[in-house]
Each structure stands twice: as C-alpha cells, then as structure tokens.
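INFO  loader      accepted 1 record
INFO  loader      residues=298
INFO  predictor   begin
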Amino acid sequence: MPPKTQLDRLAIGMMVLFCTIWGVQQVAIKLANAGISPVWQAGLRSIGAALLVLAWAVGRRVRLFEADGSLPGGVLAGLLFAAEFALIFIGLQYTSASRGVIFLYTAPFFVALGAVWLLPHEHMRRTQWAGMALAFCGVLVLFGENLLGAAGEAWKGDLLIFCSAFFWAATTLTVKASALNRVSAEKTLLYQLVVSALILPPLALLMGEPGIFAPSPLVWASLAFQIVVVASASYLGWFWLVRQYPATRLSSFSFLTPVMGVLAGGVLLGEPLTPAVFAALGLVGSGIWIANRPPRRR
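INFO  predictor   done
INFO  writer      dumping tokens
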C-alpha cells in the first residue's frame, strides 16, 4: 500500500477509535494505580504487550530478525518511548493530571516543527497550523483553569511532562524518518516495547516504588485492558498508520484523546461532565477538520 498525502475515511475512523481507546486508558490507569505503582504498571504493560505482539507476529510469519537497517532507529525509538512514559509518571508525582494533559498535548506541535527538517514532503500550510492551534484551545478550555494557582513543586512536574511531549513527538518522527518506515508495524512496536520493558522495571526499583501492593480483579482487568487493547492492538494500528499517512495530519487527531478521557471518566466513573467538556469537543473537532482539510485547487 503506497503512502498517502491525505487522510481517508479508514485513517480518520481508526484515529477516532484509537483516541477513544487512549482516552479510556486514562481511566484504566487510575483504576490500576489503586493496586500497582505507576512505573511498575508501565513496565508490566510493556512486558505483557511485547509477548502478545511477538506471538501475533510469529503467527503471521512477520519477518522480525532480518537485517534491514532498522536496528539503530528501533533502539532510538525504544529509548524515546521509555523516556516518554517514565517522565510522565515521574512528573505526575509533582503536578496534577489535568495540568499534565496541557503540557503533554503540545506534542503535535513538536511533530509539526520537526517535520520541517525531517519530513519536508509533509509541508505544513497556514490553515494546518491554525487548525492545530484551535484544537489545542479546546484542550485549554477543558483544563486551562488548572494552570492558575499552581503551588510548591508543580513546575517540576510540568517541565518533566513537557519534556515527555518532546519525546513522544521524537518517537513519531523517528519512526517516520528512519528505516522503521519500511518495516512492519509489528517490528516497529516490538523495538519500543522490548526496550521499555528492559528499562522501566529497574527504574521503578530505583525510584523505590512498591510494585504490586493491592491486587484485585478490577486492578488486573485494568492492566489487561492496557496490555491487550492499548499497547498491543491500538499501537500496532497507530504505527501502521504512521507508515502510510502524513505524521503531521495524524498527530492533530491526538487532541481528541484528553476530551475522550474526560467523557470516559463521566461515563465509567461518574465524574461530572460540564458544558466545558462539550465546548472543548467542538473546538477540537473543528480544529482537526481545519488541519486536515485538503488545499483548495487553483
């Protein structure tokens, strides 16, 4: 399947589905935090997903070990992937989740800036920048009030999560600009899962995390959802999309994730759904439409 320059219905539908899954993941992480410490949770997720993706790839006879020049990019992507999640979980020890969302979802702007040098064929037009800015305004409408009145060491967490957004964008750009863009989505994902599975558990030990301290059926179910649905199925689909479609256009959809997370919290956890949630959804949806609207033919 040759790479495309615009998002079609398949890509749009997959991205809406994945953003919904990633939004629900926020609820699953909260539920699993009640019994498994955060970085341990991320490490266990990577270990479980690596085994599942490996079994899937072997069953489909995907070539994983041939010399295709992808090793340097794969190791780099794995290190960036591990750094992203480590910084998120460490940062959340200092700042609130709502503040963290604002800084994390600066990542699409880093992708767009990096694409100027690394992906010159994905030229960003003014309307695309405007659409991304409008979508980000939707995130600010949803969480912006939490930027005010920060106290203590919240700035440390904000800075760490802002850095994690850079690593998230760098992972996407590495996949798109390196030899990983020519290998299977299974191999691309396995690089990241295996490297993070080797890094995150030792990091959790160094941080003195308790690990699994209060297991329950709900905690295990939440972790299983992250392993099977999020880190295996949705990430496989995401990296397939990154190979086939412009990274800048795909990244604009990520602004949907925090809105979907709040909606999921309202449906699954009974959290309040204020008018700001639906205003944010409208702004994000409008921004994504503007950012992905095809250029007018002259």
